[in-house]
Each structure stands twice: as C-alpha cells, then as structure tokens.
Amino acid sequence: MKKEANTFVAWALGLALSVHTVVSERYKADYRGYRLIHTEALERDDQVIAVKRILQNYETARQVFLMNDVQIAIGTDVWLLVSPSAYETVRLGFGSRHIVFHVVDDDVQRTMVENAQLNADAIRTHNNRNGGRWNSVSTNDHTAYLPYDEQMNWMLNKAASAGNVATAFPVGTSYEGRSIYAVAINDNNLGLPAVWIHGNANPRDWLTSATALYIVDQILNGNSTDAVYLRANFRWFITPNLNPDGYEYTWNFDRIWTKTLSLGANQSGCAVPGVYAVGNFDANFGGAGCSANPCADTYCGAGAFSELETQAVRNFMASLTGTLALFVSLDSFGQQWLVPYGCYLTKPNDYDEMRRVAAAAADAVRQTTGRVFAVGTPVDLTGASTGASFDWGKLRERFSYAYSIRTRPATPGEGGFDLPPDQIIPSGRELLAGIASACRELLL
User: Fold this and answer.
1) Degrees (nearest 5) of the Cα angle 73, 84, 12?
2) Is the per-residue pLDDT at 10 higher than 60?
C-alpha cells in the first residue's frame, strides 16, 4: 500500500511529457499552470456562442475543459479549466464579448499535488496504526482513498466476515478484464425490498466509491439508528466502483479522466478514447449532455450499453425486476438529489411522489451535516442530460424510485471531484442519513 501511495504522489508531482497522446501509450498527464476560471452568468447569445466555440476548438486537445455539468445558455455561469497555452486566447475572446470571469485556482496541478499528499499522509498514518492492513475487516477507517484492488479486498473480506448476511460477487468484467464487484446484504431474505447503489461510473469521482464503501460498512456493522434500520428492513446490492479501469487510470496517469478504457474503431487517433459511461444507458441515448465526437470527454459510445461496465448493471438489474424499491447512482459533484427525467423535458407521472421522497432525504442530509442538497430534475437544476442510469431505471425498468445523488461539494471552486480525504466520512454520514430517510419514506 505504501508503494501505491508513493506512486500516486509521484504522478501528481511528476514531470509528465504531454496530455496529447493516445491512452494506450499511457503517458502521465500534467496540468501544471492550468487555471480554474469561473464566469459570471452569461447575458447574451454571443457570449453563449463564444464559450461553446472555445470548448469546441480546445476541449478534445485537452486544453480547455468544462468543469460543471451544465447546459451552456443565457443565465448560466460556467467553470472552465484552461491550459497555459489557451489562456490568452480565452482571456481575449471573453474580453471581446464582455464575459466577466475570475481565476479561482491558478495552478490546478498544485492543488492536486496537495490533495495527493494529504491522501498519502492519511495512508501512512493508517499503516502505522494498523500494520499496513486495509483488507482486514476492522482496519478501514475511511480516512483515505484507496486504489481499486484495495477497495475490493476490503469489501470481499468484509462480506466474508458477515457470515450468511453478506456476499461479494462479480456482476461483470471491465474492458481490461477487472472484475466489477458488488456486495449483497440480506440477499437470502427475499421478502425485503431491494436497493441498488453504484458509484464511480465517472472514474474521477473518487468520493462516490469511498462513500459507497462507508455505507456498506455502516449497513453491516453500524450501531446508529439509521444503520440498524437499513440492515433490518432492506436487501442491498452495492457496486462501489462501476468503472475500475478508468478509476485505476485516474490513479496512475490522469486524475481528471472521465471515460472507460475501451478503444472503439473510430478512436485510433484520439488523445482520449473510451466511453463516458455516465451517458451510456438507454435513456434518449446520444442527446443533450453527450458528445458524438469519439475523442471528447463526454463521448457516450456507438450505442447504448456499448460498454461492458454498463452492460453489467443492465444484466444484473434484470434479475431484480419487480423487487427493486430504490435505484441510486452516486455521482460527483453538485450537492443535488436528482429526480428523473434528465433526458426529456417532461416529468414522470409520479414525479411529485419521487420528489417528496427526495426532499425528505435532502432534509435529512441538512440535519446531519448542514449541507444543502438541491432537489429536482437535471433539466430544472443544470440542464438536460441523456443516457443516465437513473433515467434508464425509471424509463425502461420501471423502478418506482430512481435517483442520481451528486455528492458534495456544490461547485468546482470548493474542490469539485478532487476533494481531500477528510471529506469521505462527512459525505458518508450525510448520504447514509439521506438514503435512510428515503427508505423510510418509500415504505409509507
């Protein structure tokens, strides 16, 4: 584990060659001097066009990234990550359109280095206290992010220690051959309603899998009122990390990677091959929020369920049809409890009921940690987005309650997807409370 921690710090501190390379060459990305900028709300059509053109011209070259999940439109404020070579063009272009922006972080690589060091320090402290063990059921204190093998070793041992209450098993296999594991809790009690949770469909969203592992731990062994209630009244199927290939890539090569590692026939020249698994589900596939450009960060694939990782969810859900009470996708970031639909402007017939449950969950979050989670559809809160798993769950599988929970923080300026490890436990506490509240409400 110490070697893995040092590897990650070396990546963050490393003298990378270039980000403009095919992923198969596996060069380490370097974001030294990249600035995080935040525009004020766009006021005119020409400003909207200017931002979209900047992204169109620079995004696939890894020079400008959109960092908040929004539809760029009048009234929208935009967060962009801008390379040193593109910054002057952005500054002048925005200035000519009177787009006001502020530099929030003048060196994102430096910030990632700082968070990497905090994680390495947390791992070192843990190792000194526990003899370097993370896979023992008693030694994961949820104080650090872990590479995929360590995550799964802990979960497998945790399930094995629970006797016949829990089992861990693969629901599928990734493009590079890694097993995608789930843990089942109370699976033998078929009279209980079932809950599905998955995290890390977007591999850079480390907090989602860390939070999912915290929830597994609490459901199995927690003593709080919520933990005891959840353990006694539901069957659980939790896949903490749906995209292990991409997740490992964020550890070793590119911290802001967003896709799987599959290589499509149309991606041989891409700096960023793979598919944006978040948008690879069958819910008005290929529309808003997804790119048709195979080299884009949000390329959603040649078709719905083109990826082994999303196929794993679809195939396993088929076995739960008629018994699943709640479907949850953990995503990062935004502090939102999203209700279908993001893929259509219309709402489900039972939207008011779904929103009622989500509002109760958001209130439980606020009472636990003080964090405010907005409740509504993606269309209402950030803009339309197609191909999402929770929309698919509602549209195709007819799950009564299906949500995407976007974890803390609210904005990229507060850390975005790259939060320090001391945020894992607070995130776990608030989402355990929110999910417990949702579970109580849906049984009313």
Assistant:
1) 100
2) no
